[in-house]
Amino acid sequence: MDRHRLHFSADNRPTRPCFVWLAPLFAISVQIQMLSPPLDPACVGLKAATPKDITLQEIFLDVLPFTGLPMLGLAVVITSPKIALFLLGR
Fold first, then answer.
1. How far is the C-alpha of 90 from the C-alpha of 86, rounded, in Å?
2. What would the pLDDT profile of 23-79 be if each residue is shown by its tens digit?
3. d(Cα 80, Cα 74) in Å, to the nearest integer?
4. Which of 15, 59, 65, 76 has its CA 20 to 30 A from that of 85?
5. What would the DSSP string read from start to end of 2-43?
6. How far apart are CA 24 and CA 6, in angstroms?
């Protein structure tokens, strides 16, 4: 039973690999990809629904805060894995 637990060293990094920790990293990365150029289906779909005078570049600039915050969250989860595993009780 103890082999499934995640052990942390003194510098707050896991001492053994934990694949559960990769799931939040993957989810945040996919969220960032959906809003950032060049592969941005959300922005292209938004462009199709907006008036002709709004350019795709304006949409990209308006989406920057929504890509910056998940990048900050991704950095926090990478530097402190205990945050990602908090709800699992590990």
1. 6
2. 788 888 888 887 777 767 888 888 899 999 999 889 888 888 888 888 898 888 888
3. 10
4. 65
5. GGGS--B-TTS-BSS--GGGHHHHHHHHHHHHHHSSSS-HHH
6. 16
**Long-range interactions of 22-29: CB distance < 8 A, separation 24+:** 24/77, 24/84, 25/74, 25/77, 25/78, 25/84, 28/70, 28/73, 28/74, 28/77, 29/74
Model confidence at 1, pLDDT cuts 50, 70, 90, reads very low
Place of tokens 């942390």: 8
b/e map 26-52, b = 16+ CB within 10 Å: eebeebbeebbeeebeebeeebeeeee
